[in-house]
C-alpha cells in the first residue's frame, strides 16, 4: 500500500467516496467551521479536546488499516517499518483532503518527534482573529497518524495558527 500513488486512490461511485481505502464524505470548510463554532458555543473551552480526541482515535484506526496493521499491540511491537515512508504517505493523503498544504519540517524517528507546518490552512480562514488556535481537528489527525507510525501514544500541539494572525499553522508532534 505504501508504494501506491495516493492521489490516484480517490474513488467516487455508487454514492460512495473512498480515499486510500477509507470511506469519506465531502464537506465544505464552512460546514466544518460552523460545526466547530457551535460545539464551542455549547461545550465551552473543552470543545477543542472533543474534536481532537475524536479525530485522533479515528485517524489512528484508519492509518493502521492503510498500512495493513491491526492495532497498536504486541502484533506490531518488535517489527520494523520504514517510518519516514509511512509519514510521507500520510502527508500525501492529508494533502488530498483539502485542509491545506502540510509540510514535514523535522522528523526524528528515535525520539519520536515531528514538526509540521500547514500553509493555506482552510479552517482558520473561516474565523475572525483569535488569541488561541482553532485547528484541533488537524492536531488530532496528526496525533492519530503519528500513533500509527511510531506505535506509541503521541500528542500534537498547534504552536502557530493562521486564526491568531500567523502566516501558517505549525504543529509539534511528540510522545505522550
From TrEMBL:
It holds the Pfam family V4R. Residues 113-175 form the 4-vinyl reductase 4VR domain. This is 4-vinyl reductase 4VR domain-containing protein. It comes from Fermentimicrarchaeum limneticum.
